[in-house]
Protein backbone atom coordinates (compact mmCIF):
# COMPACT_ATOMS: atom_id res chain seq x y z
CA UNK A 1 0.00 0.00 0.00
CA UNK A 2 1.34 3.47 -0.90
CA UNK A 3 1.92 6.27 1.57
CA UNK A 4 -0.93 8.60 2.43
CA UNK A 5 -0.60 12.33 1.70
CA UNK A 6 0.30 12.97 5.35
CA UNK A 7 2.93 10.22 5.33
CA UNK A 8 4.37 11.63 2.11
CA UNK A 9 4.71 15.03 3.77
CA UNK A 10 6.71 13.45 6.58
CA UNK A 11 8.88 11.38 4.25
CA UNK A 12 9.81 14.29 1.96
CA UNK A 13 13.04 15.96 3.10
CA UNK A 14 14.26 17.49 6.37
CA UNK A 15 14.63 15.89 9.78
CA UNK A 16 11.88 13.56 10.94
CA UNK A 17 10.99 15.89 13.82
CA UNK A 18 10.77 18.89 11.49
CA UNK A 19 8.67 16.96 9.01
CA UNK A 20 6.18 15.83 11.65
CA UNK A 21 6.02 19.36 13.04
CA UNK A 22 5.43 20.80 9.58
CA UNK A 23 2.70 18.33 8.64
CA UNK A 24 0.84 18.46 11.96
CA UNK A 25 1.38 22.20 12.40
CA UNK A 26 -0.23 22.83 9.01
CA UNK A 27 -3.24 20.71 9.99
CA UNK A 28 -3.71 22.66 13.22
CA UNK A 29 -3.14 26.02 11.51
CA UNK A 30 -5.78 25.22 8.89
CA UNK A 31 -8.30 24.07 11.50
CA UNK A 32 -8.18 20.44 10.37
CA UNK A 33 -7.35 19.46 13.96
CA UNK A 34 -10.12 21.26 15.89
CA UNK A 35 -9.86 23.09 19.18
CA UNK A 36 -9.85 20.61 22.06
CA UNK A 37 -8.75 17.64 19.93
CA UNK A 38 -6.58 15.19 21.86
CA UNK A 39 -3.35 14.27 20.10
CA UNK A 40 -1.38 11.33 21.48
CA UNK A 41 2.18 10.37 20.64
CA UNK A 42 1.43 6.68 19.82
CA UNK A 43 -1.41 7.58 17.45
CA UNK A 44 0.64 10.26 15.70
CA UNK A 45 3.66 7.96 15.43
CA UNK A 46 1.45 5.39 13.73
CA UNK A 47 -0.15 8.02 11.49
CA UNK A 48 3.19 9.27 10.20
CA UNK A 49 4.95 5.89 10.41
CA UNK A 50 7.78 7.17 12.58
CA UNK A 51 9.06 6.42 16.08
CA UNK A 52 7.73 8.14 19.19
CA UNK A 53 10.81 10.30 19.88
CA UNK A 54 10.55 12.71 16.92
CA UNK A 55 6.80 13.00 17.53
CA UNK A 56 7.39 14.06 21.15
CA UNK A 57 9.99 16.59 20.00
CA UNK A 58 7.60 17.95 17.37
CA UNK A 59 4.81 18.29 19.93
CA UNK A 60 7.08 20.28 22.25
CA UNK A 61 7.82 22.69 19.41
CA UNK A 62 4.11 23.00 18.62
CA UNK A 63 3.56 23.72 22.31
CA UNK A 64 6.14 26.52 22.09
CA UNK A 65 4.19 27.94 19.16
CA UNK A 66 1.00 27.88 21.23
CA UNK A 67 -0.76 25.30 19.04
CA UNK A 68 -1.10 22.63 21.74
CA UNK A 69 -0.87 22.27 25.49
CA UNK A 70 -0.01 19.15 27.51
CA UNK A 71 -2.82 17.04 28.95
CA UNK A 72 -1.45 15.16 31.97
CA UNK A 73 -0.98 11.45 31.27
CA UNK A 74 -2.99 11.72 28.05
CA UNK A 75 -1.03 13.61 25.41
CA UNK A 76 -1.59 17.09 24.00
CA UNK A 77 -4.73 19.12 23.38
CA UNK A 78 -5.16 21.59 20.52
CA UNK A 79 -5.54 25.06 22.01
CA UNK A 80 -8.24 27.58 21.21
CA UNK A 81 -7.40 30.32 18.73
CA UNK A 82 -6.89 33.60 20.59
CA UNK A 83 -8.21 36.43 18.35
CA UNK A 84 -6.05 38.99 20.16
CA UNK A 85 -2.92 36.91 19.56
CA UNK A 86 -3.83 36.56 15.88
CA UNK A 87 -4.23 40.34 15.60
CA UNK A 88 -0.86 40.90 17.28
CA UNK A 89 0.92 38.49 14.94
CA UNK A 90 -0.71 40.11 11.89
CA UNK A 91 0.24 43.59 13.13
CA UNK A 92 3.91 42.64 13.48
CA UNK A 93 3.89 40.97 10.07
CA UNK A 94 2.45 44.15 8.53
CA UNK A 95 5.35 46.10 10.01
CA UNK A 96 7.92 43.74 8.48
CA UNK A 97 6.77 42.01 5.32
CA UNK A 98 5.39 44.84 3.14
CA UNK A 99 8.55 46.98 3.55
CA UNK A 100 10.63 43.87 2.81
CA UNK A 101 8.76 43.38 -0.46
CA UNK A 102 9.36 47.05 -1.28
CA UNK A 103 13.08 46.42 -0.78
CA UNK A 104 13.02 43.29 -2.94
CA UNK A 105 11.17 45.15 -5.71
CA UNK A 106 13.69 47.98 -5.52
CA UNK A 107 16.47 45.47 -6.04
CA UNK A 108 14.55 43.83 -8.89
CA UNK A 109 15.78 40.63 -7.32
CA UNK A 110 15.70 37.59 -9.57
CA UNK A 111 13.70 34.65 -8.26
CA UNK A 112 13.29 32.14 -11.10
CA UNK A 113 11.93 29.55 -8.67
CA UNK A 114 9.15 31.84 -7.48
CA UNK A 115 6.78 31.36 -10.42
CA UNK A 116 6.82 27.61 -9.84
CA UNK A 117 6.14 28.24 -6.16
CA UNK A 118 3.18 30.49 -6.98
CA UNK A 119 1.84 27.80 -9.31
CA UNK A 120 2.08 25.16 -6.56
CA UNK A 121 0.14 27.44 -4.21
CA UNK A 122 -2.60 27.89 -6.82
CA UNK A 123 -2.71 24.14 -7.48
CA UNK A 124 -3.02 23.35 -3.77
CA UNK A 125 -5.82 25.92 -3.42
CA UNK A 126 -7.69 24.46 -6.39
CA UNK A 127 -7.31 20.94 -5.00
CA UNK A 128 -8.42 21.99 -1.51
CA UNK A 129 -5.15 20.68 -0.07
CA UNK A 130 -4.78 23.11 2.82
CA UNK A 131 -1.69 21.47 4.29
CA UNK A 132 0.23 21.91 1.05
CA UNK A 133 -1.27 25.35 0.54
CA UNK A 134 0.00 26.63 3.87
CA UNK A 135 3.45 25.06 3.56
CA UNK A 136 3.97 26.32 0.00
CA UNK A 137 2.71 29.77 1.03
CA UNK A 138 5.11 29.92 3.98
CA UNK A 139 8.06 28.77 1.87
CA UNK A 140 7.25 31.22 -0.94
CA UNK A 141 7.11 34.25 1.34
CA UNK A 142 10.09 33.30 3.49
CA UNK A 143 12.29 32.75 0.43
CA UNK A 144 11.14 36.05 -1.10
CA UNK A 145 11.89 37.83 2.18
CA UNK A 146 15.39 36.33 2.14
CA UNK A 147 16.08 38.27 -1.07
CA UNK A 148 16.00 41.49 1.00
CA UNK A 149 19.36 40.36 2.39
CA UNK A 150 18.60 40.42 6.13
CA UNK A 151 18.84 36.92 7.67
CA UNK A 152 17.43 38.12 11.01
CA UNK A 153 14.35 39.55 9.28
CA UNK A 154 13.88 36.30 7.37
CA UNK A 155 14.05 34.25 10.58
CA UNK A 156 11.51 36.49 12.34
CA UNK A 157 9.09 36.36 9.39
CA UNK A 158 9.40 32.58 9.25
CA UNK A 159 8.69 32.27 12.98
CA UNK A 160 5.67 34.60 12.78
CA UNK A 161 4.23 32.65 9.88
CA UNK A 162 4.66 29.40 11.79
CA UNK A 163 2.68 30.92 14.67
CA UNK A 164 -0.22 32.02 12.45
CA UNK A 165 -3.48 30.06 12.72
CA UNK A 166 -6.25 30.39 10.14
CA UNK A 167 -9.42 28.79 11.51
CA UNK A 168 -11.59 30.06 8.66
CA UNK A 169 -9.49 28.43 5.95
CA UNK A 170 -11.40 25.14 5.80
CA UNK A 171 -14.61 26.99 4.90
CA UNK A 172 -12.86 28.62 1.93
CA UNK A 173 -12.11 25.40 0.05
CA UNK A 174 -13.60 25.69 -3.43
CA UNK A 175 -14.42 29.39 -3.08
CA UNK A 176 -13.38 32.38 -5.17
CA UNK A 177 -11.80 33.92 -2.06
CA UNK A 178 -9.22 31.15 -1.73
CA UNK A 179 -8.51 31.26 -5.46
CA UNK A 180 -8.14 35.05 -5.33
CA UNK A 181 -5.74 34.96 -2.38
CA UNK A 182 -3.67 32.31 -4.18
CA UNK A 183 -3.53 34.47 -7.31
CA UNK A 184 -2.06 37.35 -5.30
CA UNK A 185 1.30 35.56 -5.28
CA UNK A 186 1.51 36.11 -9.02
CA UNK A 187 0.52 39.77 -8.56
CA UNK A 188 3.33 40.18 -6.05
CA UNK A 189 5.87 38.68 -8.43
CA UNK A 190 4.65 40.94 -11.26
CA UNK A 191 5.31 43.98 -9.08
CA UNK A 192 8.73 42.76 -7.95
CA UNK A 193 9.92 41.86 -11.43
CA UNK A 194 8.77 45.25 -12.76
CA UNK A 195 10.50 47.08 -9.91
CA UNK A 196 7.21 48.61 -8.75
CA UNK A 197 7.97 49.18 -5.08
CA UNK A 198 4.63 50.76 -4.12
CA UNK A 199 2.67 47.95 -5.78
CA UNK A 200 4.76 45.22 -4.13
CA UNK A 201 4.23 46.75 -0.71
CA UNK A 202 0.50 47.24 -1.34
CA UNK A 203 -0.09 43.66 -2.53
CA UNK A 204 1.80 42.24 0.45
CA UNK A 205 -0.14 44.37 2.93
CA UNK A 206 -3.45 43.31 1.37
CA UNK A 207 -2.36 39.66 1.41
CA UNK A 208 -1.51 39.72 5.12
CA UNK A 209 -4.93 41.24 5.78
CA UNK A 210 -6.53 37.91 4.89
CA UNK A 211 -5.13 36.39 8.10
CA UNK A 212 -7.61 38.44 10.13
CA UNK A 213 -10.25 38.50 7.38
CA UNK A 214 -11.20 35.65 5.05
CA UNK A 215 -8.76 33.16 6.56
CA UNK A 216 -10.09 33.87 10.05
CA UNK A 217 -13.68 33.36 8.92
CA UNK A 218 -14.48 37.08 8.76
CA UNK A 219 -15.72 39.19 5.83
CA UNK A 220 -13.40 41.68 4.15
UniProtKB/TrEMBL annotation:
Domain HTH gntR-type residues, every copy: 14-81
Annotated transmembrane regions: none
Record keywords: DNA-binding, Transcription, Transcription regulation
Annotated InterPro entries: GntR_C, TF_FadR/GntR_C, Tscrpt_reg_HTH_GntR, WH-like_DNA-bd_sf, WH_DNA-bd_sf
Presence of keyword Transcription regulation: yes
Pfam families the UniProt entry points to: FCD (PF07729), GntR (PF00392)
A GO term, aspect molecular function: DNA-binding transcription factor activity
Keyword Transcription regulation attached: yes
Stated name of the protein: GntR family transcriptional regulator
